[in-house]
């Protein structure tokens, strides 16, 4: 099956900043993928190349097996970008109608306005909208072509908690209809809650790719906490499955790649007690993956 998105070896530099550095990514039809990464990781630059808005220095971007511009002209892609320009003098309805007119097989404008929560604002001029309301207009413009692929660059920036919730509810409906969704975010909760798959980008490269659970497992392992007066950190570091040892007073903290092996050894070879084993969360994974960039 032809992938919906196929990025191969994408590279882009601005001056001496390598914004995207040999990035590969394949997305299959119907996947909901989060492009997650810290500020400056290269998410927006990747999306710009994926949409044909920026030219890669090397590598290729194909949507549905064709050049991005052709896929977009065919109405197969809807995009919500961070700072998409809106014509301030048009009303909400007019701007969505204008977007619809670009595509032969577009959706009915009233339906799209309803989906984006804009029905009550349809007659208002764009200049009079709040930032969050303008974001909803961008969302409506992304939906109106009836696209198979929706690309969203930090779609909930500037939205309050309630608006964010209703945005994701609307998106969930859209993906439920089989659309492929790619969204960039630095909100872990959004990636965890909404994406089937998280692609973690750092310094222009993919450093982890999988479900939230797989990413947690890939980077985090588990932590064992125990009370062990007079602990010998060197001996603990030598236990099977242990990566790092920290001592705080009588407490020891073992970061483990194999907590089962470490726990077995800890119990049988030391008098440790009050033992707790915890799985580290996506938050820890995010920090760990981000910190590696600094090394
Ligand atoms: N037009 C540009 N000119 C110069 N440098 C740029 C330009 N666009 C991006 N960069 C640089 O490229 C790197 C990647 O930026 P990009 O906007 O793609 O990251 P991002 O992951 O989307 O970040 P954020 O989460 O902050 O939006 C950054 O170091 C940024 O400063």
TrEMBL record:
Membrane topology according to the record: Peripheral membrane protein
A Pfam family that the UniProt record links to this protein: ABC_tran
Chain ranges of the ABC transporter domain: 5-228
GO biological process: response to antibiotic
Lineage: superkingdom: Bacteria
Cellular compartments per GO CC: plasma membrane
Protein name: ABC transporter ATP-binding protein
Organism: Phytohabitans houttuyneae
